[in-house]
Amino acid sequence: RAGNYARAVGVLASLDGYNDSYAMGAGVGRDLPRFLPHLGIEGEFFKSFSKMHGKNGDLTFNKTAVFATYSYPIEPRIHIKGKVGLRYAAFKNTVTGDDSDVGVDWGVGALLALDHNRNVVVEFITSDENKFSQLAVGLQFFY
């Protein structure tokens, strides 16, 4: 199904030098079938609700990103998805203070249609330059 959608996801986040953390995320997207049959855009926001513990202190983060997406149906109810985009992450560290990072993220995922308006979403998003990655699982709703 093509159109506008909103999503809510739970995230397991990893960063080199720190233990894993949990976050919640929300996003919106739009499929662009008039331009290219499987192309779309997405925006999302993640906020950690547990601290990442590391040798340089405890860390929490907020992340905002905008992606171009490509979703391809491999079966009527199952789609595979690729995405690439820009991110801004704000980090709060108990030892070193506040920091931020801007860069490119990319990811792969899958969608399973539950019905005409809802999908289960699983995605892995990473960034090679700062070793920050996320595994997201959630629901996507078309409106």
In short:
0% of the residues lie in helices and 76% in strands. With 143 residues, the chain is mainly beta.
Instruction: Report the end-to-end length measured between terminal Cα atoms.
Output: 11 Å
Largest β-sheet summary? 8 strands, antiparallel, barrel
- N-to-C order of helices and strands: EEEEEEEEE
Approximately what portion of the residues adopt beta-strand conformation?
Answer: over 45%
Question: Helical region count?
Answer: 0
Helix content, binned percent:
under 10%
Beta strands, count: 9
Strand order of the largest sheet: 1-2-3-5-6-7-8-9
Query: What is the molecular shape?
Result: elongated
Q: Any idea what the radius of gyration is?
A: 16 Å
Mean pLDDT: 92
**Uncertain parts:** none
Name the structural class.
mainly beta
